[in-house]
Structure formats: C-alpha cells, structure tokens
Amino acid sequence: MNITDIINIGLFTATIRMATPIALAAVGGMFSERVGVINIGLEGIMLTGAFTGVATSYYTRNPWLGVLASVFSGALIGLLHGFLTVTLKGNQIVSGTGINILAVGVTAFMCEVIWGSRGASESVPALNPISIPILKEIPILGDILGTHTPIVYLMFLIIFLSQILLFRTPFGLRLRAVGENPAAADTAGVDVTRIKYIGIILSCMLAGLSGAFLSLGNLNLFASGMSGGRGFIALAAMIFGRWMPYGTFGASILFGFTDALQIRLQSIGLLPPQIILSIPYIITIIVLAGVVRKSTPPSDYKPYEKR
Amino acid sequence: MVKIENSMKILIVKSIKFVQLIKESIQRIFPQLIAILVAFLLGAIVLIFTGYNPVDAYYSMIIGAFGDIYGIGQTLTQATPIIFTALAFLFSFKSGLFNIGAEGQFIVGAFAAAITGIYIKNIPSPIHIILSILIGAFAGGVWGLIPGILKNKFGAHEVITTMMLTYVAINFTGYLVNYPFKAPGWVSQTLQIEKTAQLPRILPPTQLSASLIIAVLLAIIINYILQRTSFGYELRASGLNPLAAENGGINVKRTMLYAFIISGAFAGIGGAGEIMGVHYRFIEGFSPGYGFDGLAVALVGGLNPIGIIFAGLLFGALRSGGMLMSRATHVPLDIVTIIQALVIIFVAAPTLLQYILNWRRNKS
Q1: To the nearest whole number, what is the mean pLDDT of chain B?
Q2: What is the pLDDT of residue A307?
Q3: Is B363's pLDDT higher than 80?
Q4: CB neighbours of B148 closer than 8 A, spacing ≥ 6?
Q5: Do A90 and B344 touch (CB under 8 A)?
Q6: Is the pLDDT of residue B240 over 70?
C-alpha cells in the first residue's frame, strides 16, 4: 500500500464535497446564533431536508424542485423553532432536541409509507455535476474545484454573500445588534422579534439546503439517519469559525477533510470501519476543546423581554 | 361518643387534605397531560393523512401495552431503561447542564457490565451482580466525566461533546463486539454473561427484571438527594444561578463535574440493567434510543424523579404497545417516535397552551 492511495487529488476533491453540507449548516447555525437563538435542531433539519428533497424529486422527477422543497421544509421548521423560542420564550435546547427527534421519526415513517422500507428510498433523479469551463483547465486546482454538483458552487456563493450581508449591510447590523444587545436594538427602532424570526428561518433554510446536498447532490437517494451527526459537527465548525462566515467555512473544510479521509480509509480497509467512522467525531471534540476557550459567543441567548 | 366524633373530624379533615393534594398534583401536571393529549391527536392526524386508521392503531397500541401479562411485562421492561436515562438527564439538568448524550453513557455502561458478567467467574451471585452494576456505573460515569472536563477546562459546550461521544460510543462498542469480544456466529454479539451475573426476573414468563426495582429506588433516592441534602441544594443552586452560587461559597465547577459523573453513572446503571436483566449479552444496536427517550421522559415527568417513574411507564407503554400496533395494523413503528417528539416540543414551551387559549379569546 502506498501513501498516495490515501492522500491524492481525489481526497481533496472529496474534502470540498464533504465540507459543503457542513459549511451550509454551519453558516445556518451562525445566522440563528447571531440573533441570539441556539439552533441544535440543525441535525434534524438536515435530515428533513434530505428526505423532502428526495420525496419531491421522486414525484416530480425534477431534482431542482426537490432542492426548493428542502429549503422550504427548513423554513417551516424555522418558523416552528422561532415560534417556540421567540414568541413563547421556550427552552431553545429542548425545542431543538424535539426537532431532531421529530425529524428521525417523520422521515423514517414517511420513508416506509412511500417506499415500503424505513431504511432507504428508491433512487430518484438527482443533481448532475457541472464543470466550470476555465477553472476546469487549471492543473490540480481544476481537478479539485472544477467539477462538482451545483450546490457546491452555491455554497461558495452563500458564504461570500453571508459575509457581506452580515458586515456590510444595514440589515446585517440589525441582525448582529439583536443578538448582542436586543434592548439597544429595540430602542433604536429595530423590530427585535421580526429580525429574530428572519435569522432563525434563514438558518433553517440553509440547513434544509445542506440536507438536499446530502441526498440529491452527493447521492441520489434518502437513507434514514443519513445526516450522521453533521448538524452537530456544523455547530462545532461555527464555534471554531468564531461565528464568522469565512472562519466557519475554513473550519468546515477541516471537518470535510476528516470526513473525506474517513471514507478513503474505509475503502482501503486498513482499520476496522467502526474505528475509522469515529475519526470525525473525535476530531470534532478535540478541535472544540482546543479553540473554544478563546472565542466569545455573539449573544447571551436569553429571550428578549421588552421593558 | 365524643371520641368517635373527634376521630371522624380528623378523618374528614385528612380526606379533604388528601383530595386537595390530588387536585394540586393534577394542576401541576396539567400542562404535561395536555401536551400528551395534543401529541396523540396530531399523531392521529398524521395517520389519517397517510391512509391508516388511528382508532385501530391506538386501540391495538393500548391492547399491546396493557392487554395481558405479556403486554404489561413488556411495558414495564421498556420503561426501566428509560427511567434510568431520564434520571440521568434530570440530574444534569438540575445543575444547569444539558447531558443529551445519555445514549452513549448507557451503551458504554452496558458493554462494561457485559464484560464483567462474562469474564469474572466463580463468585457468589449477589457480589457478581453488584460488581457488574458498579462497573457499568463506573464506565457510564467516565463517559460522562469527559464532557465535564472538556467544559470545565476548555469551555466546550456539552450539547456538542455529549452528542459526539454518543457516536463514538456506538462505534467503539461496535468495534469491540465485532472483533475482540465477538461470540462465534453471524450475529454481532458477545458471549452470554454468567448465571451469577443475571438479575432475577420478577414477573415470569415476561422479561421484566429486578432492574425496575433498582430504577424506582434510585428515583426515590435522587428525590431525597435533590430536596433534602446540602449537595442537592448546591446542585440546584449552581443550576439556577451559577454566579450567585459561587458567591455563596459553592464550588460551581466541582459541583458540575460531580453532576456529569453521576448523570453518566445513572445512564450506565441503566445499560448494565438492560444487559443483566433482559439480553444476558451485549448485542450491537440493542438500544433503540433509550437515551434519547430519557430526555423526553424527564421533561414530561415535570423534572421530578417521582414524576419520571410515571412518565417512564407512559413511554414504555408507547414502545411496547407500538410493537403490537406495528404487527397488527402495519402502521410504521416510527409513529411512536413522532408522538414522543411532539410531546417534547409541546413541553419545550409551557406557555403554548396559554397562548392558544388567549388567541381563541382574542379572536372571539
């Protein structure tokens, strides 16, 4: 066995691919936390998004409608999370956990109703990879970045736009203000409740898109539990990236790399699969322990009481 | 004559007090009852929309859970591990922590107890049982200690670390049971534990074991610790207001660490009881998610150890009844998970009921 069997251009191409769902969910988590609401439901929203996308593509034979449906399913869950945590001032972690468990139940239930198996769906029309003309010709870089599912390129665009939205627009200023100091934002005439809802719904839409990538971008079917803890890894990436879009992206690349490495090592069969499967989770714990102390969350996550 | 009159009076006063007590407890659990009711109603709507008959489904669920001795035994057997994991979640929650990784601590405890039950031989049964439970508690406690240290020393949020450690626990025990400790054959399981390590079955011919008695005793002890001891007070104080607790002379960090260890140990005992009372061996994937049920049960039980026993029975009934329902009516078993999740969502926001009532009033 050669080291180039593990570390080669294919590994870095896979890194970009596996970083995509984590980055999308992580930036999603960031928008929610920027307005002062913890979103540990990312995992469940990804799973729901993955399922909704496949089910829609199955019935319409159009994967892009599937992607839209995934994003829409995220928005609906965002509305629920917002209602429970902002309007009713309920416990954010309990609500998120409820969403996660609901997603496991609903997706497995519907999978059995539609395809007669709670394990996996049938194959459905999925997104085809596209090649970027000039980028593709560049050596090495072209191999790594040149040919991917459109959602990968969408992810790059979303990261870039999120950075601009958050730090270069009045709307971004309002988002940050609502998280950091809701009372001050309120005094300045910002509708705190409305901004919180927007942040949460945006967050959940991105997690839904992330789910669509898992089922329609990376594969062409839904498998129960296919999010595999990536929602929680995304939360770690968000913290590692200090609640900044670019930082979050960098952290997602790291976690995407461990995921890609894990898949690569499994195909070689060097170690038992159970040990290899643990790698991303262990790396996430180590990274979280190593860096988190230095970062300050953008909010105290308390429900806002108008005085 | 006067004597009788007096004792009659005392009796009347006492019964009035008793009725009041019942009334008060019903009022206290009213939001939970509504949450359960609404969750079942929404579950029925899901069933109708997917072409099933909710009346048939729920009827067979009730028959399955309570219809005969097997059903009741199965309900209590399913309730047992959930009561343990709910107590684990409760203990962390009271001290302001979110241990959502009871599933991992449960599995690690189960595996450690299985190994103790298999490889230690020729010791008297009571000692073997106690030793296996203690080692299960120890393993669960260690698995709970890791996120505790990570939080105390490095500030890593326990929601992420406990969840990651659950995945690690599933994979790690999966490795152990598939390679070094695999019993001969196709199934991913260990050898059977020694007879001396098996917990007695208390409702033959069902699988119900003495683990249930341990669970109930543990709930009563925890109730006492939380309400009546200074440690329980320190724990609750750290949870309610860490800053004030610290100023009051409580070592909050140390208290939290203890809470993590004890919480993990409770889940570990639950896992040990499941192996020693039900399966007699560690089987890969033996837990259908008891650790996650625990969170829901703790909340539905009103974050009270005694309430957890009753909520545990309800969720145990859901699981055991769900099995018969699934066989008899072909409704996917996952409707049970959906109902459980809905209950969690409704208890997440206790003001939900009030909100709906106000909204109706404002409308009319």
Answers
A1: 91
A2: 66
A3: no
A4: B158, B256, B257, B259, B260, B261
A5: no
A6: yes
Q: Tell me if the bond preceding B180 is cis, omega within 30° of 0.
A: no
Chain A residue with Cα closest to B175: A274
Closest residue in B to A109 (Cα–Cα): B334
B156-B162-B166 Cα angle (round to 5): 145
B168:A106 CB<8 A = no
Nearest-Cα distance to chain A for B17, in Å, is 34
CA distance from start to end of chain B:
59
Interface test with A, best of B157, B329, B352 (most A CBs within 10 A): B157
DSSP annotation of A126 reads -
| pLDDT at residue A9, as a whole number | 86
Query: CB–CB of B332 and A109 under 8 A?
Result: yes
pLDDT of residue A293: 60
Amino acid at the residue B93: F
Domain boundaries along the sequence of chain A: 22-227
Helices (H) and strands (E) in chain A, counts: 13, 2
A2 conformational bin, left if phi > 0, alpha if psi -120 to 50, beta if neither? beta
Minimum-distance CB partner of A281 among B164, B175, B335: B164
Interface predicted TM-score of the whole assembly (ipTM), two decimals: 0.91
Protein fold of B36-47+55-350: ABC transporter involved in vitamin B12 uptake, BtuC (1.10.3470)
Q: How far apart are CA A240 and CA A283, in angstroms?
A: 12
Q: Which among A94, A112, A288 is the nearest to B348, CB-wise? A: A94
B7 class by beta-carbon count within 10 Å (0-12 exposed, 13-18 middle, 19+ buried): exposed
Top pLDDT among B299 and B218 is at B218
When scoring A97, A238, A242, A288 by the number of chain B Cβ atoms within 10 A, the one with the most, hence best to mutate, is A97
- Once rounded to an integer, what is the mean pLDDT over residues A284-297? 78
* Least confident window among B53-57, B98-102, B357-361: B357-361
pLDDT-derived band at A152 (thresholds 50, 70, 90) equals very high
